[in-house]
Amino acid sequence: MPDAGLEDRIARIEAQLAIQQLAARYARAVDSRNLADLGGLFSPQTNFGEHGSGEDGARAFYDRVLAGFYRSFHQIVGHVITDIDADSARGTVYCRAEHEDGDHWIVNLMVYFDRYTRVGGRWYFLGRRPRFLFVGDPRSAPRSIDFNRWPGREDRFACELPQSDESWSTFWEQHPDDRDKVTSLP
Question: Domain map of the chain by residue range?
Fold first, then answer.
């Protein structure tokens, strides 16, 4: 009789590896403007609103998004996968995304909050929710309260991290004097 514990651990490792590939494959597909590969990363039940669901919805949605800037480079800099079970998981993906937008070169420091699902033995994105740490020109330090400096798109990116994390508030509540020494921004 095979070791059930070993089989479960191997299945978990295989799930982690497959899910990690989703983030890297997403970055590659977006940057190469490969809508066929990009659409194939999303589950049939992923809803893209007016664009539809699943692969076709993803392709239609990203066709519009990616036409909004010329070049992009997505660098995956960390991936944490949690709550893995047989057919679902959650994760966070840290990313540095760079975009050529007209005469501007814009950097987005962001975190994707992902939900994953396994359908027919294959892992897909069920949903992705990006949250931003900084959006702007990398040659200048962020000095505005919202850390968003993408000309003409300031209203599209709410830079809410890390301040919206509960642990952030708890930490700085315990160190109010130190916080005041290291920043003039709230």
Answer: 4-160
| Sign for the pseudo-dihedral over CA of 184, 78, 151, 163 | negative
Please state which CATH class domain 4-160 belongs to: alpha beta
Element (H, E) at 31: helix 4-32
pLDDT at 31: 93
Residue 70 to residues 32, 67, 104, 131, 134, Cα–Cα distance (Å): 11, 7, 11, 22, 20
> Each residue of 59-118: pLDDT tens digit?
999 999 998 888 899 999 999 999 999 999 999 999 999 998 888 888 999 999 999 999
Distance CA 48, CA 19 (A): 21
Burial class (CB in 10 A: 0-12, 13-18, 19+), 130: middle
Does pTM top 0.85 for this prediction?
A: no
**What does the alpha-carbon distance between residue 126 and residue 41 come to, in Å, rounded to a whole number?**
9
